[in-house]
Amino acid sequence: MAFNIIVLAKQVPDTRNVGKDAMKADGTVNRAALPAIFNPEDLNALEQALLIKESYPGTKITLLTMGPGRAADILREGLFRGADDGVLLTDRAFAGADTLATSYALSMAVHKMGSYDIILSGRQAIDGDTAQVGPQVAEKLGIPQITYAEAIEEVKAGQIRVKRRLEHGVEVVECPLPAVITVNGSAAPCRPRNAKLLQKYKHAKTITERQVEHIDYIDIYSSRPYLNLTEWSVADVEADPRQCGLSGSPTKVKKIENVVFQAKESRRLSGSDAEIDELMRELIANHTIG
Amino acid sequence: MANFYTDTPQFRHYLHHPLMKRIVELKERNYADKEKYDYAPMDFEDAMDSYDKVLEVVGEICADIIEPNAEEVDQNGPTVENGRVTYAAPTQQNLDALNKAELMGMGLRRRFGGLNFPMVPYMMSADIVSRADASFQNIWMLQDCGETIYEFANEEQQERFLPRIVQGETMSMDLTEPDAGSDLQAVMLKATYNEEEKQWYLNGVKRFITNGDADIHLVLARSEEGTKDARGLSMFIYDKRNGGVNVRRIENKMGIKGAPTCELVFKNARAELVGTRRMGLIKYVMSLMNGARLGIIAQSVGLCEAAVREAYSYALERRQFGKPIIEFPPVYEMLANMRARTDAARTMLYETSRFVDIYKTLEDIGRERKLLPEERDEMKRYSRLADAFTPLGKAMSSEYANQNAYDAIQVHGGSGYMKDYKCERLYRDARITNIYEGTTQLQVVAAIRHVTTGTYLQRIKEYEAMPVAPELEQLKRVLKQMAEMYEKSVELVTSQKNEEYLDFHARRLVECAGHLVMGHLLLQDANKDAALFRHSAEVYIHYGEVEVLKNCNFITRSGIEEMAYYKPDLNVTE
Predict the structure, then answer these.
(1) Chain A residues within 8 A of B41 when measuring between CB atoms
(2) Which of A75, A92, A182, A281 could be cross-linked to A134 through a Cys-Cys bond (beta carbons 3.0 to 4.6 Å apart)?
(3) Inter-chain contact B60–A192, Cβ cutoff 8 Å?
(4) Mean pLDDT of all residues in B480-489
């Protein structure tokens, strides 16, 4: 048995290293000021896909991402970790998309890919934190979804069993395939890049990259077809331009505010072990830490 | 994201040494593998880019997984039950991460699934792994035994064992016995050949075997009954799948607690001969030990780096008398010396690695085709240099690892004496580096003939001939004066033609050679990248000058007669 898996991934600004110039005056994220990384929970999703591939050799993992040209970086990142193929959905007409327009574009790309068994994605991206794209893709494709997945316990023909991490415990659910699974950050971390795959795929490029960059080894793209990363436009996935990008996005950012948390109350602790214990328990319970 | 490769710019400096062009070209046989393997490089630039990228992966795994695991590894360590060893859980996690990243068999040829990396990037990985957890570096570094199988075992054995190493099976080298430590000629483990079964069997005990429950063992055993010396010893491979070897106990050590040190009992263990009988110690172990010693230099450098970083960050944070203690001269002097020793040991490591790379690769090419006369000369030249630099580097760097670990605790003051700080683990881990794979005293025995035959001096003269920027000329003059003192002392000692007297001063002379070699290497580094190395070059050369003065002065004052004051009087009974 083997499965066709699509992993939805996003290149995001590394908001864990935010400096002063992280936001532009117009209230949008200043992407140029932050290093671009593979969205962390999408890496957790990729690991789940790789684990399935380990159990079922022959399973094919395709990464799908939407973004500007440089988002091809995360396709390579995925290939270095064990994905088989990558598709970059890129077009000026996709720019400025909110979650609705994004999930529309992604679902059109999934349609174009044809057959698939499992679609995995991170629970949410660290730039928007909406957690909407995965579920909306499932709705648009008309297939079931399981959110907050922590581990895929079993996959068999037409059926998947998943452990979900919820606020106050875990839940094990089953659903028929194909399905969309969104994966939590508490799931197994993604394995490191593989030394051989890294050397194998480091020259993988999209057609646009090959046109605009200086390329050292022209010949290898015909002799090694796996080095050609697929790039699709609005037209390629037969999407309706009105539903894409800014024009397909009902969400408008009206205003952005800097919120500074101010301590409303303070508590003085004596520093005894019991008090520290209690404080730790409280902080973990209200998710301040952990 | 923390990364132990990219946060240490010295690595890229050494990776881009001019000699790499030649090394990579030899190692890659003019890039012939690219037709057969999708991960082989296209050309020199592509190969260098691959080393850099793979080292980034190593740096990431070390910073994200191995270093954070190190404390727990040290606390829990491995356990033994029913003759089998189980690693501490985080040690296993480290191994799994490196296996998934296919970082095993780094130096092995691609036809066995290896990465075919030269020594330089391979030792960089060892250096980085050691900074993260010196005890784990032991286990990981034992993959190097694969090199011995590659060099001396037959093709059928290579094909059977080498791919298993690449897939993550661990190795051990079973040499030491209760009565054969530094003196391996005394090895007694018995190898008997059963003519009917055409099968070797091993019986006996090995002691202090690092990672002794490994999947694949290289075993030194006495195959020639009745012999008592090195000429009766042969090398064997024992495959754990065949059974016959049990771990009787694991030692409770002071440091490197994550690496199980085992006592092994061989009971009719089936084994296979490597290479030719009687060559076990004379040829194979010598080669194995040279590789292992290079690994210990890397381990020492990694420990040096970890210690200086711990001390530095503590000195920045810790405030006394109203300011961070790093602002006090006695503290910053200690830190500058620690950085200088680290850089000195590291530059020595990569110089030695380059020598090993060239001669070993030429030797390997020599197995495929006849070497050209100029290639033979090149091989001999570098083989001799590697032979001279390996014990020198092992002696100097392992002592520096100890000094750095000692100073790291000193910078921490009373806190450093507590178990709460990492520096106390570094101190314990470093303590073995100048003992195993040959004590410093034994490295001196190997190095002294390169003092007397002039290998070091000749190399020092070559360094002297290398140009440096005008602002570095003064340092070079200091080094030249040091060389003159060294030469005089060598002459003074050797002219006595007394072996015991030479042994008496050997360590002092070898240390002088070490200061000179490392001083010159740092000078060259500073010439290429002043921002990165100028300080260390200044600090190290001044330190080395004082050490050379001290040693040479001692030699001048201590003639053959003075030796008597040190000699124990064995006729006196208490």
Answers:
(1) 199
(2) A182
(3) yes
(4) 98
Q: Do the domain assignments include residue A223?
A: yes
- What CATH number does the domain located at B440-564 have? 1.20.120.470
β-strand A85-89 against A60-66: which pairing, if any? parallel
**Cis before A178 (ω within 30):** yes
Using an 8 Å Cβ cutoff, are B193 and B146 in contact?
no
- Between CA A94 and CA B156 the distance in angstroms is 58
At residue B199, what are phi and psi to the nearest 5 degrees? -145, 135
Show residues of chain A in contact with B57, CB under 8 Å.
192-193, 195, 198
Ranges of each domain in chain B: 171-277, 440-564
Sign of CA dihedral A209, A211, A217, A221: positive
CB B144 within 8 A of CB B290: no
Residue-range definition of the domain harbouring residue A192:
4-253
Contact between chains at B38 and A224 (C-beta distance less than 8 A):
yes
Which H or E run includes A162?
strand A159-166
Is residue A85 in some structural domain? yes
Share of chain A above pLDDT 70, in %: 96
Name the more confident of B19 and A279.
B19
List CB contacts (< 8 A) between A220 and chain B.
Answer: 42
**Minimum Cα–Cα distance from A190: chain B residue:** B97
Q: Transcribe B95-131 into DSSP letters.
A: HHHHHHTT-SSTTS-GGGT-----HHHHHHHHHHHHH
Contact A192 B97 (CB under 8 A): yes
Of the options 2.60.120.10, 3.40.630.10, 2.40.110.10, 2.40.50.140, the CATH number for the domain spanning B171-277: 2.40.110.10
CATH no. for residue A85?
Answer: 3.40.50.620
Q: CB distance from A283 to chain B under 8 Å?
A: no
Q: Answer whether A195 sits within 8 Å of B100, measured CB to CB.
A: no
Q: Give me the phi and psi of B228, to 5 degrees please.
A: -130, -5
CA B302 to chain CA centroid, Å, is 11
Mean pLDDT of B336-346: 98
Q: How long a stretch of residues is chain A?
A: 290
B67 or A98, higher pLDDT: B67
| B39 in reach of chain A (CB within 8 A) | yes
Q: What is the DSSP string of B467-490?
A: ---GGGHHHHHHHHHHHHHHHHHH
A30-68: pLDDT as tens digits: 767 778 999 999 999 999 999 999 999 999 999 999 999
At B9-25, the pLDDT tens digits run: 999 999 999 999 999 99
Question: How far apart, in whole angstroms, are the C-alpha atoms of residue A190 and residue A200?
Answer: 19
Using a CB–CB cutoff of 8 Å, tell me whether A194 touches chain B.
Answer: yes
CB contact (8 A) between residue A198 and residue B40? no
Whether A164 maps to a domain, the answer reads yes
ipTM exceeding cut-off 0.85 for this assembly: yes
Q: What 3-state DSSP class applies to A258?
A: coil
B460-476: per-residue pLDDT in tens?
A: 999 999 999 999 999 99
Judged against a pLDDT cut of 90, whether residue B395 lies above it is answered with: yes
B358/A contact by beta carbon, under 8 A: no
* pLDDT band at residue A262 using 50, 70 and 90 as cut-offs: confident
- Quote the number of domains for chain A: 1
Q: Which residue of B has its CA nearest to A16?
A: B1
Residue A128 included in any domain: yes
Does this model's pTM top 0.90? My answer is yes
- CB contacts of B42 in chain A (<8 Å) are 216-217, 220
By Cβ distance, the residue of A192, A217, A224 closest to B57 is A192
pLDDT category at B398 given cuts 50, 70, 90 is very high
Q: Which residues of chain A lie closer than 8 angstroms to B101, CB-CB?
A: 191-195
Cβ B4 vs Cβ B131: under 8 Å: yes
The rounded distance, in Å, linking the Cα atoms of B178 and B204 is: 11
